[in-house]
Amino acid sequence: MRLLSILLCCCLVPAAVAAGDPVQLIAAVGSGRVQAVRDLLASGGDANAKNGAGRPALVIAAASGNTRTTRELLLAGADVNAVDAAGNTPLIGASAYGHAGVAKLLLASGADPNLKNAAGQSALARATLAGWPDIAEILKQAGAVEEAADSKKK
Questions:
Q1: CA 134 to CA 4: how far, in whole Å?
Q2: Residue pair 66/102 in contact by the 8 Å Cβ criterion
Q3: Given a cut of 60, is residue 33 above it in pLDDT?
Q4: 0.70 cut: is pTM over it?
Q5: Radius of gyration of the chain (CA)
Q6: Contact of 74 with 52, CB cutoff 8 Å
Q7: pLDDT tens digit string along 66-76?
Q8: Residue 28 pLDDT > 70, yes or no?
Q9: What element of type H or E holds 102?
Q10: pLDDT single digits (tens) 51-64
Q11: Is there a contact between 139 and 131 (Cβ–Cβ < 8 Å)?
Q12: What is the SS3 assignment for 60?
C-alpha cells in the first residue's frame, strides 16, 4: 500500500504541477510542503486558490503558522486580506493560533489589522481571547484599534 502511495504521488504530482491544479496547491499548503507550493505557483498555480469549503490558501497557511509557505503565496500575489466563508482573514487566523512571525509578515505585506470576521471579531480580539498578549501588542503597534467592551451599536 505504501509503495502504491509513493507511485501515485510521483506519477500524479508532475501532471498537477504542469496544470497548476488548485487541489494540489491547497494540499501542499495544508501540509507545509514549501517546495511543492513554490513549484505549483511557478507552473501557473493560483495563489488565491480556495479549498472546497471556500478557504483561501493564504488563510490556511497563516492559520497553520507556516511562515515560508505564507511568504511564497504573498510573493505570488495572494490577497493579504482574503477571507474565508466565516470572514476570517489570514491575519485573524495567525493571531488566533499564536503565530507571531506570520502575523508580522502579513502586517508588513499590508494586512489590515482592523478587519473583522462574520462574528465581529478582529485579529486583536482573537489574539486577546486566545491569550496571545505578544501578538495583541504587535497588532496594536500596527494600528489595530480596541473597541470598548460595553460599546453597542444602537
A1: 46
A2: yes
A3: yes
A4: yes
A5: 17
A6: no
A7: 999 999 999 99
A8: yes
A9: helix 100-108
A10: 999 999 999 999 99
A11: no
A12: helix
